[in-house]
Amino acid sequence: MNLAAAPSAPPVTHYENFPVASWLCPPRLRPAIAAIYWFARTADDIADEGDAAPQQRLDELAAYRADLAAAARREPASARWPQVFGPLREAMHSFALPEPLLANLLSAFVQDVEKTRDAAGYADRAELLDYCRRSANPVGRLLLHLYGVHDGASLARSDDICSALQLINFWQDLGQDLRRGRHYLPHQDSAAYGVAQADLQALRQTPEATKLIASEVHWARTLMQKGAPLVHQVPGRAGWELRLVVQGGLRILDKIEALDFATLRTRPRLGALDAPRLLWRSLWM
Description:
Helix content: 55-70%
CATH class: Mainly Alpha
Number of strands: 0
Strand content: under 5%
CATH topology: Farnesyl Diphosphate Synthase
Radius of gyration: 19 Å
GO biological process, one term: terpenoid biosynthetic process
Protein name: Squalene synthase HpnC
Largest sheet: none
Shape: globular
EC number: 2.5.1.21
Number of helices: 13
Keywords: Transferase
GO molecular function: geranylgeranyl diphosphate synthase activity; squalene synthase [NAD(P)H] activity
CATH architecture: Orthogonal Bundle
Low-confidence stretches: 1-21
Structural class: mainly alpha
Mean pLDDT: 88
């Protein structure tokens, strides 16, 4: 789902979908949110950045997972990522952050490496949602944990929002991801619309591809709208920030639609001119 350094930033990459220690966040939570951010951001860089071979990335992620386990046991981590695991260890024990949620994020990064290596892609929407369950949903659940929100309905809505943000990121970055060997369009959906994998690889915006992307955008919008009532369950300023996050995701979908779903060719972005619209829509939620 990528992280953002500012509140309500548009979904740009996996963890740029959630705010990091912004001015809307209570001061007592800012160190913990920053620790979660740097944990996820660093792991994402291990999986994505540079010229390392896939096996080297997997070995690095395994070492990173071992340091997470050590932090959970209040034991010293290795000296490789002190800027990550020092603050994270403190946050885990100050706020009882669930280790399995953090570990799920790492499993998604591992899957990113493996899926890129074998270019298998995702068979259907259920398989892609399982990836979102580990790559995006833990972020929302960790933030709800910090705010003391634990009821099942709120967790389910958080999962819908986070999965929607991850899907929006996929459909926004479709052409860029395909160039990098990332295949997120479910094969079952591609077959249903008669879209050949060769056309996707060549970034051909055929009429069939346009209909396929439109269907995926509708799916993401439906998920976001399903989760949107969560903004009324999250307390205080965080609820207002969540409104902006939801509206930022929906605005990206509007822009994809305005491009006639041609994200094999073009990547839509949010800009300063979108801010008044996002604020207005957030007020009316």
